[in-house]
Amino acid sequence: HATGGFHERLGTRCEIRPEPRRTRVLARQIYVFAMAGRFGFQGDWRRACREGVDYFMARAVKPDATVRLVIAADGSPVDDMFNLYDQAFALFAFAAAAPVVEDRARMEAAATALREALLTRYRHPASGFEEGDPPTAPLKANPHMHLFEACLAWVDAGGDLVWSSLADEIAELCLSHFIDPHSGFLREFFAADWTPAPGVDGRIVEPGHQFEWAWLMTRWGVRKDRPDALAAARKLAALGEAHGVDPVRGVAFNELFDDGGIKDGVARLWPQTERIKCHMALAAIASTDAEKAHHLDCAGDAGEALLRYFDVETPGLWRDRMELDGSFLVEPAPASTFYHIVCGIDEFDRGLRAL
Q1: pLDDT in tens, 153-186
Q2: Residue 323: which CATH number?
Q3: Which residues does residue 196 pair with via DSSP β-bridges, in sequence order?
Q4: What are the DSSP calls for 58-84, one per residue?
Q5: Which residue range(s) make up the domain with 216?
Q6: Looking at 136, 165, 189, which one is the last position of a domain?
Q7: Tens digit of pLDDT for each residue in 289-347?
Q8: CA atoms within 13 A on the CB side of 348
Q9: What is the CATH number of the domain that holds 50?
Q10: Which of 73, 100, 125, 253 could form a disulfide with 267 if both were Cys (CB 3.0 to 4.6 A apart)?
Q11: How many domains does the chain have?
């Protein structure tokens, strides 16, 4: 972006328009450019990552170490509301940048200060975190998923033991409350006591999150030698395949109800990448050749589905939403999706190299 940071989205011919930018998108783009060097990208990825971090620290981080929700195109604050989701991606961005920026200590300090703010001000009395201060309902699984991801990223980046402990807590919360003990589906919304939210909210299931949690729980379960976590991950993946993939279009779609009925059959790009990540992780721990072949086949199918989203006028952009008839909605490409693309490709590549 000419004034710093990153654009929220690009038009189908790379048109740019000044518009507010979500903090989570800025954080995701820091991760993208930190990863670009690992992929062998020949552009100045290190500068993009460094300048992205500098802009984020100056514009998105508040004096209390938490991050704001939205900033304007000129970098001024638009919405300072606390959102747990954005805090998770800030932690994730700091972990991604730590190994590639000149001042690793700066990233560690920012992450530690934000973590301390969460632990001090936003702790849920039972487990996990509140959505606001004062507490608001419903509580949500999704921000915890990305906190889990950020904690594991900090463990990989050589962070302190608190990251591992916090990852353990979120994993246990997933096993005890997020995953329905009878169906195996992972719910999205909860009441203040971590029981399913009343009404329709408590019945919503997202296939993409079934796959994404399966990927994370597989990673954690392997590290901690937890067969129960691995069994839960396999069940999440199986349910995602059985109920969340349209056999006609060949894509994972947006939303289900907890009885397996379809709530929203539109298929965004990002669930395809989570399907890849999930099955590559499960293929790596498969106990039989048949099981490994199944997961690799599913990952391959997801990869084929993903490629359809890149059939666009401008190479390097993507479609985001496939309609029920298989056509794509013509709209700007959201930068938020780039994180999913990069992470999906990384897991696919690493998984294949490990076979």
Answers
A1: 999 999 999 999 999 999 999 999 999 999 999 9
A2: 1.50.10.10
A3: 190
A4: HHTB-TTS-B-SEE-TTS-EEE----H
A5: 179-355
A6: 136
A7: 999 999 999 999 999 999 999 999 999 999 999 999 999 999 999 999 999 999 999 99
A8: 22
A9: 1.50.10.20
A10: 253
A11: 2
